[in-house]
Write a structure and sequence with these properties.
mainly alpha; 0% strand; 75% helix
Length: 308
């Protein structure tokens, strides 16, 4: 059996590190600022960076990296015209993949634990595999299903014993569950647009539309923020999350979706809870049990299986 590792695997690993650390970073900021106000500012900042990058790239041209220049360039810019039908699709993507997804993800994370959020996030590859199989975008092979299910089992071993669903966190669990469905739908629905347009263009434009929809929803939360008490640490967390967790990580995600497909790309999201666990061990001094080691190994093996 021949492996199909590509140059994108390394950026995808970087993406999991960014998203894994992002959980603790943004949740810690919620003690200082309303979650939806934080998210509104974060989305506005990320949209400004993406649109600014698109304008610079359009004016100066995409970066060049030797023989791979054409492939790299297609990630940042394509000369195709955005049609009226494209704008309608971008608006739908902005609503589902940015407005609803962000509202539910941040609202859910504020109400439930990182453990619960991580477990629910583990359903993303399964949902994406089902959607891509139904739409005929990817052929999901038995080895891919085996790897995905093994990763889900591994995440349960790592986090499942300490995660309790229901009670006070039930609303948060449901919101994160809706966010996972939105993210899977957005990932699959965006792929046809990326056959003609760049991942940066599709992400940037849909994000700007989604942010425009999101801001009125968060207006009341923004109005209640005591701005003088917002700490420098919160602004730093917001900047990290906007630039890296959204702009950089989203670009990596959709560059991979365009090149290796939604199903194989999505399995890397199973590594995010492992990174979150490792971050907690190193930064917060949480104990590392044998079950966590076994579970982490199962997740890593599951991801490896899907990449064969």
């Amino acid at each position: 059996m021949r492996t199909r590792f590509t140059a994108l695997d390394f950026p995808l690993l970087l993406m999991t590190i960014i998203w894994g650390t992002n959980f603790a970073i943004i949740k810690s900021a919620f003690a200082n600022i309303d979650p939806q106000a934080f998210n509104a500012l974060r989305l506005t900042m990320a949209s400004a960076v993406m649109l600014g990058s698109m304008a610079v790239i359009r004016r100066t041209g995409p970066p060049r990296f030797g023989p791979a220049s054409a492939e790299v360039a297609s990630i940042f810019h394509t000369p195709e015209t955005v049609t009226r039908a494209d704008w309608l699709r971008l608006a739908a993507l902005g609503l589902v993949g940015h407005s609803i997804y962000q509202y539910c993800f941040v609202g859910g994370l504020a109400r439930t634990s990182v453990a619960n959020s991580s477990l629910l996030l583990a359903m993303t590859p399964v949902l994406i595999a089902l959607l891509t199989a139904v739409r005929g975008q990817d052929r999901v092979r038995p080895l891919h299903w085996a790897g995905t299910l093994l990763s889900v089992v591994g995440i349960y071993i790592v986090l499942g014993h300490g995660a309790r669903f229901g009670g006070e966190s039930l609303r948060g669990d449901l919101m994160v569950g809706i966010a996972v469905v939105c993210w899977a739908t957005y990932t699959v629905a965006a792929r046809p647009l990326m056959r003609r347009h760049s991942p940066v263009g599709v992400t940037g434009l849909s994000m700007a539309i989604g942010t425009a929809i999101y801001l009125p929803i968060a207006a009341r939360a923004l109005g209640r923020v005591p701005w003088s008490s917002v700490t420098a640490r919160t602004w730093l967390a917001m900047s990290y999350s906007a630039i890296f967790a959204i702009c950089v990580a989203y670009t990596i995600w959709y560059a991979a979706v365009k090149q290796i497909g939604s199903a194989r790309t999505s399995v890397y999201s199973n590594l995010v809870p492992i990174v979150a666990m490792a971050t907690a061990v190193i930064w917060l001094g949480e104990p590392l049990s044998a079950s966590k080691v076994v579970g982490a190994a199962a997740v890593l093996l599951g991801v490896a299986l899907t990449r064969l």
